[in-house]
Backbone:
């Protein structure tokens, strides 16, 4: 490898930019690895590189003394005689090193594996070998390289400005899980979904009828399972083109009288694979009435079956927002077909392979419902695109194919067998392997090894493995895998030999499989016979004991396996049993039963206690994670004691407290650990003082009932989940507990308030509530903020309330800070440019959480007036800096970027000023003023000049729209052309890489042929060489004479 001069873009070397570790080592060389090289082969490859360097053989493996520089994230190998680390032999990025190898025979040698092209996962691996002067230095070098690699990986894994790509590559939809259907084939007819839905509804009607008749509550959660068709299970899955619902034309094979056959679950095993235990813990599967049909288990509609259906790059996931966990995960390889209902167009399902512990695998169809037909169409289109993309990615990967008869696989098994053996025993194993080769191969390897003159058994083993590896790599190139059809060759003899070798390899593999299966079968039969014989003897002994005691007792499996169960130890006669040794009375067995039951009860209690402690520890950890922010205006111990007394008051929800007292307590501070309880208390007191009219109150729909419904706002909510508090630990995990709780809360409110639904900004308000209380408490508090305090008016589709608020803020600036108002008006900066996010998110999207939490404290006491106070205080405290900004962009950038970065003292000062202000009268006057102005504008007739100007603007707008559409069409055409060019360029690049690989292999063959010719020339006698040269001269002279004769007329 040639030396390279490395400099940065400014011409300065980067040797001293970071702290570097330096190690003096010997670089023994490197070698590329075959893709089929395994771990047991690596020590022999390292030994080959080491042997070449020790024999002073020429080539890239020649040893040289180097300095190894570790400069994160780079590893640089520099010649020892060079004082400039910018002149190096090679350099790697430490995070691309995949494995270290430490030689056990000579501890001073070590090596590492790295991919030659890190960006290409299909590129070859390279092995670099080093030698340390001191064996004790090797662990230090390896540890240092690993530390550099970890630091580089940690640097790469830091969160970036844009959100995680995989999160936005995956599409998410809210679905309602309807049930699971067992089918006997991987394809389905077009009416499968409709038939399943009809049976589900019939089942629900039957269950309600039985509930009314019996007066009992159905308590099973298992969805209905159907067995459809008689077709045998196919061993292969459908291809991608079979996923189109319209392509599934196969008719359903019906049983008996042509009706669908219903069967019940014999156990909850199949359901437990879909739902976790926490969903089923309240289900009593044994409490079915005798009059119920015994072949049906109805599903419990009281449970929440809404799920998030996530379509990833290679799998689909079903996530439960209730349990905050993935309840179903299926890879695309397991899914055979997808279909949409013909009549029930808002339903869809997919058929996949269901792996069962006993018996053959079966196909299962999962049925789901969406909020609308449009969403189902989008789900089906997303699935089709995802399946097509995944299939293209899988086909583009060159997978390493191996079979039982591969030469490299045989070498791998040999290296596994001799790993860790002493050289003499390893030599015997290798000789046994060599005896299975052909005579010519054995002679060739023997002669080549003897020419090297090995000095020991270990060195001889290394040489033999070296030549075996070369032989196996050569044979692997022309190897035909088991089950493959050999390619047609030009000569029939070659094809015959390939067929015969492939046949022998296949026969050998089948023999090995038969031998292993026969051995295992015999072992299983013998073990079963022994176990049965032992059970018979135990039963006979126990029966004799019971007959002697004149009392028959039930035998417990625990009593039969006491020697294997350490928790139940048998009592000996010395421990209190009477009678002969080995003979036990019925009282003794009762004592054993009592002891076993007692120990089992203790174990169950301990396990429950451990679960309770673990749950409390997790809850404490989540609570600590939620409240991980710096508090503003920390309250004293006296204030904490005051809030403790108020929160422990028994009549706090029924007795009205003095407003001034509550306001004074809030102004002094609120303890962060009990802020959620304080907010609930303040909302209850506010409702006691201000009772909403009946027509303005929210619907009284329970939170859990809302979660069972599907929302049409799911897309907007799911998109905003990753944007809400992205840096907070509780909400940063994609579809983690925080984001799923936030989704539940936003979904429930969108269903409760159909007029508002979901609007951007509500997520930040709901997220801050979730940080301080549970989901249901946060939902009740969100209803209080929206309805009781009237914040929902600013989220209405017309946004009139937000326009009024912007006008009020502008008038406040005009009256209280005239210079700032004039400065903003001169640069045409209206409050909606910078203050709209403050009002829509209640400052939560831009300011620190501690500051926002204090604003919420005041909001529960003073109402929405606090938002104007805080906004006015923020602008007034930065008035001088804003007046110094002399441009539109600089002012807007200061308002959006600089103001939110408040110091702790500035936040406390802002909150203190806001508590002392009173602008309620001005806000009311400004609102009346806005409505009067709007009425005047609406009543005034538009002037004629304005109408003409409006017509001209409309015509110009229409022309611009037409031009825009033309440009859009041109842009789409250009994008299509770019895509085709990119595709052709990729094909050219792949063709070029293949040609380079072919040229490299041809050059290697040419070099080997030249070496063979030179060796043949050297072995021929000199007189023979002279005769050959004379013959070549004569032939060339005759050829030239013939050419000249042909040219003459």
Residues:
């Amino acid at each position: 490898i040639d030396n390279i001069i490395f400099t940065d873009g400014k011409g300065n070397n980067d040797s001293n930019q970071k702290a570097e570790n330096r190690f003096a080592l010997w670089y023994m060389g490197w070698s590329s690895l075959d893709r089929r090289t395994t771990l047991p082969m690596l020590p022999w490859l390292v030994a080959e590189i080491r042997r070449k360097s020790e024999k002073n053989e020429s080539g890239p493996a020649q040893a040289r003394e180097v300095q190894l520089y570790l400069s994160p994230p780079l590893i640089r190998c520099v010649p020892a005689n060079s004082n400039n680390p910018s002149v190096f032999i090679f350099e790697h990025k430490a995070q691309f090193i995949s494995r270290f190898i430490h030689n056990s025979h000579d501890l001073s040698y070590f090596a590492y594996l790295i991919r030659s092209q890190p960006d290409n996962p299909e590129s070859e691996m390279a092995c670099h070998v080093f030698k340390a002067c001191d064996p004790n230095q090797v662990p230090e070098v390896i540890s240092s390289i690993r530390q550099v690699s970890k630091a580089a990986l940690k640097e790469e894994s830091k969160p970036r400005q844009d959100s995680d790509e995989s999160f936005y590559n995956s599409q998410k939809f809210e679905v309602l899980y309807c049930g699971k259907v067992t089918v006997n084939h991987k394809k389905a007819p077009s009416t499968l979904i409709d038939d399943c839905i009809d049976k589900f509804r019939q089942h629900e009607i039957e269950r309600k009828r039985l509930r009314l008749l019996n007066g009992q509550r159905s308590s099973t959660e298992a969805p209905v399972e159907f067995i459809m068709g008689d077709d045998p299970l196919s061993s292969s899955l459908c291809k991608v083109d079979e996923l189109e619902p319209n392509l599934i034309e196969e008719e359903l094979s019906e049983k008996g009288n042509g009706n669908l056959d219903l069967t019940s679950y014999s156990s909850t095993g199949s359901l437990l694979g879909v739902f976790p235990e926490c969903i089923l813990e309240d289900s009593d599967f044994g409490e079915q009435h005798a009059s119920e049909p015994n072949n049906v288990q109805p599903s419990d509609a009281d449970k929440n079956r809404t799920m998030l259906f996530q379509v990833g790059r290679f799998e689909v996931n079903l996530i439960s927002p209730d349990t905050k966990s993935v309840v179903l995960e299926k890879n695309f390889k397991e899914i055979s077909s997808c279909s949409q209902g013909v009549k029930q167009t808002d339903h869809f399902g997919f058929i996949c392979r269901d792996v069962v512990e006993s018996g053959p695998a079966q196909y299962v169809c999962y049925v789901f419902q969406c909020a609308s037909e449009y969403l189902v169409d989008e789900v089906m289109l997303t699935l089709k695109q995802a399946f097509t993309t995944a299939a293209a990615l899988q086909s583009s990967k060159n997978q390493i194919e191996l079979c039982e008869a591969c030469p490299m696989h045989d070498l791998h098994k040999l290296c596994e067998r001799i790993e860790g053996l002493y050289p003499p025993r390893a030599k015997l194993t290798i000789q046994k392997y060599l005896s299975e080769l052909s005579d010519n191969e054995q002679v060739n390897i023997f002669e080549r090894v003897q020419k090297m003159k090995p000095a020991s058994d270990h060195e001889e083993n290394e040489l033999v493995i070296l030549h075996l590896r070369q032989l196996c790599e050569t044979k692997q190139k022309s190897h035909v895998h088991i089950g493959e059809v050999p390619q047609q060759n030009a000569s029939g003899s070659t094809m015959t030999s390939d067929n015969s070798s492939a046949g022998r390899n296949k026969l050998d593999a089948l023999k090995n499989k038969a031998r292993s299966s026969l051995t295992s079968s015999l072992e299983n039969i013998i073990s079963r016979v022994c176990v049965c014989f032992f059970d018979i003897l135990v039963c006979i002994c126990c029966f004799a004991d019971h007959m002697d005691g004149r009392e028959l007792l039930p035998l417990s499996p625990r009593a039969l396996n006491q020697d294997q169960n350490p928790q139940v130890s048998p009592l000996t006669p010395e421990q209190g049993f009477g009678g002969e040794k080995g003979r036990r009375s019925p009282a003794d067995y009762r004592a054993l039963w009592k002891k076993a039951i007692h120990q089992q009860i203790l174990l169950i209690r301990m396990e429950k206690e451990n679960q309770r402690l673990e749950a409390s520890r997790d809850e404490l950890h989540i609570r600590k994670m939620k409240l991980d922010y710096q508090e503003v205006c920390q309250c004293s111990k006296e204030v904490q004691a005051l809030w403790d007394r108020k929160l422990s008051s028994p009549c706090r929800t029924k007795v009205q407290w003095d407003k001034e007292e509550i306001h004074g307590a809030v102004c002094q501070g609120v303890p962060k650990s009990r802020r959620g309880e304080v907010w609930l208390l303040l909302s209850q007191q506010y409702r006691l003082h201000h009772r909403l009219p009946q027509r303005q109150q929210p619907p009284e729909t329970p939170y859990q009932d809302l979660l069972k419904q599907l929302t049409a706002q799911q897309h907007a909510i799911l998109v905003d989940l990753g944007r809400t508090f992205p840096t907070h630990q509780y909400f940063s995990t994609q579809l983690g507990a925080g984001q799923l709780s936030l989704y539940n809360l936003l979904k429930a409110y969108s269903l409760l308030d159909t007029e508002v639904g979901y609007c951007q900004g509500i997520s930040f308000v709901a997220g801050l509530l979730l940080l301080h209380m549970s989901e249901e408490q946060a939902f009740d508090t969100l209803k209080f903020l929206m309805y009781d305090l009237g914040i929902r008016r600013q989220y209405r589709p017309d946004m009139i309330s937000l326009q009024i608020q912007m006008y009020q803020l502008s008038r406040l600036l005009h009256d209280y800070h005239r210079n700032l108002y004039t400065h903003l008006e001169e640069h045409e900066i209206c409050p909606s440019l910078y203050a709209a996010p403050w009002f829509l998110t209640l400052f939560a999207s831009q300011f620190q959480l501690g500051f926002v939490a204090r604003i919420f404290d005041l909001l529960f006491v003073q109402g929405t007036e606090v938002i104007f106070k805080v906004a006015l205080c923020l602008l007034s405290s930065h008035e001088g800096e804003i007046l110094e900004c002399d441009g539109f962009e600089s002012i807007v950038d200061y308002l959006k970027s600089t103001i939110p970065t408040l110091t702790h003292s500035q936040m406390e000062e802002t909150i203190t000023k806001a508590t002392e202000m009173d602008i309620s009268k001005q806000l009311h006057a400004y609102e009346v003023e806005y409505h009067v102005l709007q009425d005047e504008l609406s009543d005034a007739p538009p002037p004629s000049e304005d109408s003409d100007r409006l017509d001209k603007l409309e015509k110009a707008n229409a022309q611009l729209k037409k031009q825009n559409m033309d440009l859009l069409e041109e842009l789409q055409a250009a994008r299509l052309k770019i895509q085709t060019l990119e595709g052709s360029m990729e094909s050219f690049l792949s063709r070029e890489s293949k040609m380079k690989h072919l040229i490299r292999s041809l050059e290697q063959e040419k070099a080997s042929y030249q070496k063979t010719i030179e060796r043949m020339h050297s072995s021929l006698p000199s007189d023979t060489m002279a005769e050959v040269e004379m013959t070549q001269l004569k032939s060339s002279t005759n050829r030239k004479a013939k050419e000249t004769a042909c040219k003459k007329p």
